[in-house]
């Protein structure tokens, strides 16, 4: 029996909509598609309105709506527009997580990761921007808490947060994993804490806590050029640079030619030089798609060696 007096059987509905008979029967049992009538034998019959209702159910299900949401639309308890807005948000989050999962898998292939590393990578990659920011805030709080440091300087350091795009590259994801491991490493935290303590002590003593900013870039570039040229720290270029640094750093009453003073300047520069601290900013640049941060540590080490000659 296919059609009775203008009514449709489940078999006819199935042919017209492409839905399996089992699915249509399930919707009917769930109350989403009540039959318009029944035959004397008890077979369910559906009218044209039921046909249209079934097409709507099919469309809403294909868009990902659950049975409860479909029922709410059919009963006019909510609107399709309102549900669509909610589902867009849910889909956006799902897409974001799928992209992250894809990036993790690409990174696993590239790094040939072991099972334990894969587990950690997936955990770190699944963190939200807020969770990443919280990890950075915890790091800077631990390395500066209780110290009389320059608040403006440390606020600038703390304000830079890793923000991965929705579809991060394997390089960005790898950078985040390395970054998260770095700022949670006790040895790195202890090293930055020691830098902060020296910074605090120098402020308390009224000493210069950092080199003159205008000259520092020029000094670094000169040291890098000399290093690239294969010159030794005790070369004529090295001695000239050391003289300029000492004179630029010296304040009233300090002799830039004094050996002890130059050693003190070299010590302060060396204390603030750590390849891992530089790596912190290089990784931040990769994650946030900033211009690359070049390595300056070898040039700074050459500079301090020149000061000690």
TrEMBL record:
Sorted UniProt keywords: DNA-binding
GO molecular function: DNA binding
Keyword presence, Aminoacyl-tRNA synthetase: no
InterPro entries: DNA-bd_dom_put_sf, MerR-type_HTH_dom, MerR_fam
Residue span(s) of domain HTH merR-type: 7-76
Protein name: DNA-binding transcriptional MerR regulator
Any one Pfam family match given in the protein's UniProt record, by short name: MerR_1
């Amino acid at each position: 029996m296919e059609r009775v007096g203008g009514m449709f059987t489940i078999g006819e509905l199935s042919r017209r909509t492409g839905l399996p008979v089992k699915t249509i029967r399930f919707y009917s049992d769930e109350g989403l598609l009540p039959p318009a009538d029944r035959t004397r034998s008890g077979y369910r019959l559906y009218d044209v309105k039921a046909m249209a209702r079934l097409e709507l159910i099919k469309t809403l299900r294909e868009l990902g709506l659950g049975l409860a949401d479909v029922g709410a639309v059919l009963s006019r308890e909510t609107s399709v527009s309102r549900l669509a807005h909610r589902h867009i948000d849910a889909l956006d989050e799902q897409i974001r997580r799928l992209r992250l999962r894809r990036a993790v898998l690409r990174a696993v292939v590239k790094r040939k990761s072991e099972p334990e590393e894969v587990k950690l990578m997936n955990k770190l990659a699944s963190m939200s921007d807020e969770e990443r920011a919280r990890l950075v805030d915890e790091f800077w709080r631990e390395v500066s808490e209780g110290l009389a440091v320059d608040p403006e300087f440390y606020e600038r350091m703390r304000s830079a947060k890793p923000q991965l795009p929705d579809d991060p590259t394997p390089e960005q994801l790898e950078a985040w994993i390395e970054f998260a491991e770095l700022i949670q490493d006790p040895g790195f935290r202890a090293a930055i804490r020691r830098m902060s303590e020296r910074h605090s002590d120098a402020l308390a003593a009224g000493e210069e806590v950092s080199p003159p900013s205008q000259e520092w870039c020029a000094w670094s570039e000169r040291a890098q050029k000399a290093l690239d040229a294969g010159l030794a720290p005790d070369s004529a270029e090295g001695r000239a640079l050391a003289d300029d640094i000492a004179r630029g750093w010296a304040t009233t009453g300090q002799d830039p030619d004094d050996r002890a003073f130059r050693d003190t300047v070299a010590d302060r520069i060396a204390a603030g030089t750590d390849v891992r601290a530089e790596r912190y900013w290089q990784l931040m640049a990769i994650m946030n798609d900033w211009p690359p941060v070049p390595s300056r540590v070898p040039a700074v080490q050459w500079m301090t060696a020149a000061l000690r000659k």
